[in-house]
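Hi D.,

Good news: the full-assembly prediction came through. Inputs first.
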Amino acid sequence: MARSRYRRTTLLRELALIVVAAVFSLPFYLLIAIALETTEQTYRAPLSFPLSPHWSNFSQAWNTGGQAALPRSLESSLIITISSVAALIALGSLCAYAIARRRGRLSDLVYILFVLGIILPVQLAIIPLFVVMLHLGLVGNYAGMILLNVGLLMPLTVFLYTGFIRTLPRDYEEAARVDGAGILRTYSRVVMPLLRPITGTVAVVVGFIVWNQFFEALIFLEGSRYQTLPVSLYSFAGDYVARWNLILAGVAIAIAPILAFYLFAQHQLIRGFSAGLKG
Amino acid sequence: MTAAVTFSDVRKVYPDGTRAVTDLDLRIEPAELMVIVGPSGCGKTTTLRMTAGLEEISEGEIRIGDRVVNTLDPRERDVAMVFQNYALYPHMSVFDNLAFPLYARGISKTEIRRRVERTARLLELDGLLKRKPRALSGGQRQRVAMGRAIVREPQVFLMDEPLSNLDARLRSDMRAEITSLQRELGVTMMYVTHDQLEAMTMGTRIAVLRDGLLQQCGPPQALYDAPDNLFVATFLGSPVMSLLRGRIERERNALVCMLGGQRLPVEGNPSMPALNSYVDREVVVGLRSEHLSQADGTVLNGPQLRGLVRLTELLGAEQLVRVDLPVATLTGETHGRSEVAEVTARLDAHAHMAVGELIDLSVNTAHIHFFDPTTTRAIH
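Then the structure:
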């Protein structure tokens, strides 16, 4: 029985998957290869892997650039992403908890409003938003960018959390209430831990969106000292117009933190995603 | 500290108009184990949840001790509840599960440790305190759920079908354990179940509910011996009481009950005085299996019924024999045969029975139950 399980179709399927994986890895290979080449090599043989890797590209990319300096924008990106995700999880889960557990038209209506928020493109409102935030002193600083992100991504966060909470049995909360816990204790000690799988999903989805965010960051932060990585890389490309090895070394530095996080939390993330989907 | 629970005219109507509980009047005495039993959808769980404060009361009043608790939050009622699926917090260890109600009440850490450890010893959970619920067996989870209720020393325990997720063997063990625990702690307990066996074996008293209406309340034996109506009569007891359509007639100054062509004297039956007003009228006759025995066909065995053996079920110590009698059934169903009703008799396991043979059953007429066919109420 065990021998017959590995059939020809299995082999074909494996081959197909290997091809797909290779195609997906190609850009990554190019990124690393070019980042390690000299400028001359990038023009002569960009696709071949350099036999003597040019590691200094990384230090050069890391150390140069005024407003667009990588260390500073890495710091900005980290601060903005972590703060936005933390605020979204704290507020979004509370909001979704109320929507999912309250019966009645009001909560249905609020839910629909949030869903509409996912559908409508932010670009529609970007000009009035910019004007209002400029007047409030929220352009070109952390607070404004974090607030903007929380607002923009709250619908998605609430949507994901609400779907999950609705599938959660009420028994745990009822047990906690009878056990003498108030609403906040019930939420923080019982509900929030039960939301762990979906919180993982939300953190990754929302975190990636914020980390890779370009359009909003360009409009609200460009030229300030709080510029994030994608914007810096963009101006990098302007500064080093012909030096692709330096540009790609910068890109490699920019994706390193998220890649490290992904490798580190891979197991957790996949569990979170599948639990979220099941919910 | 233990308290009485009193329901006065309690009513629950859901927003969609469903009446879950109608005009419930019931008092559960301090330290009593009251079993609320009924088929699914009868309102028993709603009653329990209203007591816990998880469900609003539409009308009426619930008191715990002297306090009216209608609008009190669950945590202000000083009750503990064991849920059907236990609702153990999956992310907490057994210790934290047991300690949670105490933390929520702001009790000191040393006192919490003392009480959790005492409860764990009582329920033999000592070695499991560090485990998570998912690493426990069904019986152990049940114990933790019990422990979480006990640890707080509440005034009233509420149990919502706590044994329904256990296998038969464990269930009978836990039945005894819960009963003895309740006696030991001397605490008031409301115990909801759909299982009549749990009700009979555990309850100090039983309250039988049907469609949100209290049918009868009393000690298990009293309900079994003198059910108020057909529902209670058929709900309690296994095998189910056999029901036949009979007719009361007067024969030379004595009352007899005609079952098809056969007659049973009702002399000595407690319902006899009341049956006088049913002469020449139809009644529903209820026979419990233990009040039928095998007769030899002679008059020496007293009143008898004759029928055909249809099926025998051997239980080891005894056998249940289903006998077809040529009598109209209650429902008028004929099962493809004309006018045949079935009665179940509990006979000696070693008595020889062959399907299709004629059998004479001797009837203990003092224990026949009579019901009014229109009101379904017992005649007495």
